[in-house]
UniProtKB/TrEMBL annotation:
PROSITE patterns: MR_MLE_1 (PS00908)
Keyword hit for Metal-binding: yes
Domain Mandelate racemase/muconate lactonizing enzyme C-terminal: 140-238
SMART domains per the UniProt record, alphabetical: MR_MLE
Protein name per the record: Enolase
InterPro entries per the UniProt record, alphabetical: Enolase-like_C_sf, Enolase-like_N, Enolase_C-like, Mandel_Rmase/mucon_lact_enz_CS, Mandelate_racemase_C, Mandelate_racemase_N_dom, Muconate_cycloisomerase_anti
Family statement drawn from the similarity comment of this UniProt entry: Belongs to the mandelate racemase/muconate lactonizing enzyme family.
Superkingdom of the organism of origin: Bacteria
UniProt keyword annotations, A-Z: Isomerase, Metal-binding
Family matches, as Gene3D superfamilies: Enolase-like C-terminal domain, Enolase-like, N-terminal domain
């Protein structure tokens, strides 16, 4: 199982429905397809989504770091030597989605070699997850229409509402309109992507106390250390750390520092190996976990559901698994489908996915 070749292929697929949030917006899935080849002919596949406003990575930087630094360090290693692979990748700081894609491609190889699904190898807790849909910035009426469409079409009843606009009352009004339209049975939570100050966040939370929110996520920056701690002390629901807690060490810092009391796990940035470290760490600390979405395409979503469904603690809440619905197309030979508000884990060996060669030829940016 020696690694003989690592590919980093930039591709771009437009969004039919762009997503807007406080730290940025996505119009095109300008991701990188990562393929790790072994001497036995196995090919592990994953995708890396550049999020410059979150991690500083770009499509070009992901391709460059894989081609020039990661691939040469991986060649000749066995896919079983994941810990050595990570030691070598970690000689380079940052670049979380590039590292995560390599990690998940290695797990795909291991699963294929064993003839077993990765989700089973990770923990095999359940075969599906409830889906949470992210509602991006728009006038309140459009946000309601979007949530109703996703509920009526896919049976989804959990929604994460993007907040963090100014004035904050626009978001309070949108959340209220969503609650009124969706009724008391829907689960609603909010994600500010650091858009508000601690004081704005506190005011907004106070004005939404009757809306029955499930969680609040990254309402203000974690770098406003005392302000954020002050806010979390007053927050009536678990406060999720997302972009402020992207490793087990950052989770320790944020939780013990009082800057969060729940954590978003995203396989797009911690792969399977480090996501398990984060997850087990959260279990040890006794804080809840939500499977987040890095605005993944279908390949990334297959990875998120494989991981989320594999463990009790990551399968507990609905996972954010529907961002791919906004894309105009994707690369998988068998597209994902959300039914009855749930997404199933792929049952084939490894990640159980195939890449459509015609689609890849159409969307790749390097030829
Ligand atoms: C999220 O949960 O924040 C938007 C920015 C990012 O880094 O992830 C997405 C979704
Ligand atoms: Mg978030």
């Amino acid at each position: 199982m020696k690694i003989v070749h690592v590919e980093a292929i930039p591709f771009a697929i437009p969004y039919a429905k762009p997503l807007r949030f406080a730290s940025g917006e996505v119009h095109t899935a300008d991701h990188v397809l990562v393929r790790v080849h072994t001497d036995e002919g196995l090919v592990g596949t994953a995708e890396a989504p550049p999020r410059p406003y979150t991690y500083g990575e770009t499509q070009a930087s992901i391709v460059a770091v894989i081609d020039t630094l990661f691939a040469p360090r991986l060649l000749g290693l066995s896919a079983l030597e994941r810990e050595v692979a990570h030691e070598r990748l970690d000689r380079t700081v940052g670049n979380p989605t590039a590292k995560a894609a390599v990690d998940m491609a290695l797990w795909d190889i291991l699963g294929q070699a064993a003839g077993m699904p990765v989700s089973g190898l990770l923990g095999g807790y359940t075969d599906r997850m409830r889906v949470s849909h992210m509602v991006g910035f728009a006038p309140a009426g459009q946000m309601v229409a979007e949530a109703e469409r996703v509920r009526d079409t896919y049976g989804v009843t959990t929604f994460k509402v993007k907040v963090g606009r100014r004035p904050y009352t626009d978001d309070v009004d949108a959340c209220r309109a969503l609650r009124e339209a969706l009724g008391p049975g829907a689960e609603l939570y909010i994600d500010g992507n650091r858009g508000w100050t601690a004081a704005e966040s506190a005011r907004a939370l106070r004005e939404m106390t009757d809306l029955g929110l499930l969680f609040a996520e990254e309402l203000c920056p974690a770098d406003d250390v005392l302000g954020r701690r002050w806010l979390v002390e007053r927050c009536p629901v678990p406060f999720i750390a997302d972009e402020s807690a992207t490793s087990a060490a950052e989770v320790t810092r944020e939780i013990l520092g009082g800057s969060a009391n729940a954590v978003s796990v995203k396989t797009a940035r911690t792969g399977f190996t480090a996501s398990q470290r984060v997850l087990h760490h959260c279990e040890g600390l006794g804080v809840p976990v939500v499977m987040g979405n890095q605005i993944d395409g279908q390949i990334g979503t297959v990875c998120s559901v494989a991981f989320g469904a594999a463990h009790r603690s990551s399968a507990r809440y609905a996972g954010e698994l529907s961002n791919f619905l906004g894309m105009s197309d994707d690369l998988l030979t068998e597209p994902l489908t959300i039914e009855d508000g749930t997404l199933r884990v792929r049952t084939g060996a490894g990640l159980g996915i195939g890449i459509d060669p015609d689609k890849l030829a159409r969307y790749r940016q390097d030829r």
